[in-house]
Write a structure and sequence with these properties.
TIM Barrel, Enolase-like, domain 1, 2 domains, about 40% helix, binds magnesium ion
């Protein structure tokens, strides 16, 4: 293996990649009727031609150029760094990416600059894992507990998780790590699918796709909901009628309701024995989530895909606002911040069921789930990783699903690498009219 000090970031490239998914209503839900799945795509070149750090931020179309602009402004800060600096000074570099006080005004620590910071963090971790010739999940799992704790920013977090607690969690899991790695490779991790459940699909298409998903081995399927109680009840009745009680069913309101409305609506769906209700209300309304969770118990509440930072997760966990923690690979500050969230979820004994889909999210977030299974919470915990069967053909190392399970990724890195042909074909030329 090449010495890390000899590998240096020499250039940065970004691409505004957009897929016209709104034409088929793929991805349609109660709040997002016509998404064009897009990637603000980042590559960090090195002095080794075939070694690049790659990541992306997922958006749903308009504004992808704004996201990209934020990424460009932060990524320039890592040009010239060597990989041994990136490893040894990791937290300092991560903190520097969030330290511009004038950009911070646009957050703090949420929104497009924070996601841009996440894009750079993810690309740096991708580069480290690739240089060490390991898939990211395994690279992270094989770091020393102390090395992992040393890359976490505990500011504003210590009343939820402090460094000693994080270290203790990782030390406790250390002995079973090798056994867990073997198990992850042989068994994979359970997936659930949302592919049949988009709100724009009619009943026939929904049932047809549900049948296919069941035949493909999925045990849990999620359906979008929240526009009309009558429609939700009809769709869930049809699913229960055709597929019985054994099929695990979750629903996702994508933030459609107010707090009181959510409580009433969810209680009207109780008979369907839902595995969880996702994003009942605004993602930052922590107190609202807590009230909803208490009022609809025992129906579990899931959220997190649009929670802006570790601080929101901390509040959700402390106030019992979520039974299921839905991390997202590109919403928060990258691997550095997601490590904090994964460890905090473990402390509060809540399972991680990552959000995925979009474009590239399955490829990226699976690494965090495998890391959690192997080095943090083990295999006893309920864990389903979201899977949506769209756009994987554009990736060099697409996810592998067998019999309803994610297979442990084998290729080095975080697997956000898109095919060059897809990047060039779907690169968006910004039309001035879009900005009016
Ligand atoms: Mg969702």
């Amino acid at each position: 293996m090449t010495n890390l000090s000899e590998i240096k970031i020499t250039g940065i490239q970004t691409f505004d990649v957009r897929f016209p998914t709104s034409k088929s209503l793929d991805g349609s839900d109660a709040m997002n009727p016509d998404p064009d799945y897009s990637a603000a795509y980042l590559t960090l070149q090195t002095n080794f031609l075939h070694l690049q750090g790659v990541s992306l931020v997922f958006t749903i179309g308009r504004g992808n150029d704004l996201q990209l602009s934020a990424i460009e402004r932060l990524a320039i800060k890592v040009k010239g760094l060597t990989l041994d600096q990136i490893f040894n000074d990791n937290l300092k570099i991560y903190m520097d990416l969030g330290s511009d006080s004038q950009y911070r005004w646009l957050g703090p620590e949420y929104g497009i600059f924070h996601m841009a910071r996440g894009a750079v963090s993810n690309a740096l971790w991708d580069l480290l894992a690739k240089a060490n010739q390991k898939p990211l999940w395994r690279y992270l799992a094989e770091l020393e507990p102390k090395e992992l704790v040393n890359v976490i920013d505990f500011s504003y977090l210590e009343d939820g998780l402090n460094a000693d607690e994080a270290l203790e969690i990782l030390e406790l899991a250390r002995d079973s790590k090798q056994v867990n790695i073997s198990r992850a490779i042989s068994e994979g991790l359970p997936a659930y699918t949302t592919s049949p459940g988009w709100l724009g699909y009619d009943d026939q298409k929904m049932l047809q796709l549900t049948r296919k998903a069941v035949e493909d081995g999925f045990k849990l399927i999620k359906f979008k909901c929240g526009l009309s109680l009558k429609d939700d009840r009809r769709r869930l009745s049809l699913v229960r009628e055709k597929f019985g009680k054994e099929l695990l069913v979750a629903v996702d309101a994508n933030q459609k309701w107010g707090v009181d409305e959510a409580i009433d609506w969810i209680n009207e769906l109780k008979e369907f024995d839902l595995s969880w209700v996702e994003e009942p209300t605004h993602p930052e309304d922590v107190v609202g989530h807590s009230q909803i969770a208490a009022a609809v118990a025992p129906t579990p509440i899931a959220t997190g895909e649009m929670a802006g930072s570790r601080i929101t997760f901390k509040q959700l966990l402390k106030l019992d606002g979520q039974a299921i923690v839905q991390i997202d690979a590109t919403r928060v500050g990258g691997v550095n911040e997601n490590l904090a969230i994964v460890l905090m979820a473990r402390k509060f004994k809540k399972p991680i069921c990552p959000h995925a889909g979009g474009v590239g999210l399955c490829e990226m977030v699976q690494h965090l789930a495998f890391f959690d299974a192997v080095a943090v919470s083990g295999f006893k915990n309920l864990r389903y990783i979201e899977f949506v069967d769209h756009l994987h053909e554009h990736f060099k190392y697409p996810v592998e699903i067998q019999n309803g399970c994610y297979q442990a990724p084998k290729n080095p890195g975080m697997n956000a690498d898109m095919k060059e042909s897809s990047v060039s074909r779907y690169t968006h030329n910004l039309d001035k009219k879009e900005m009016l």
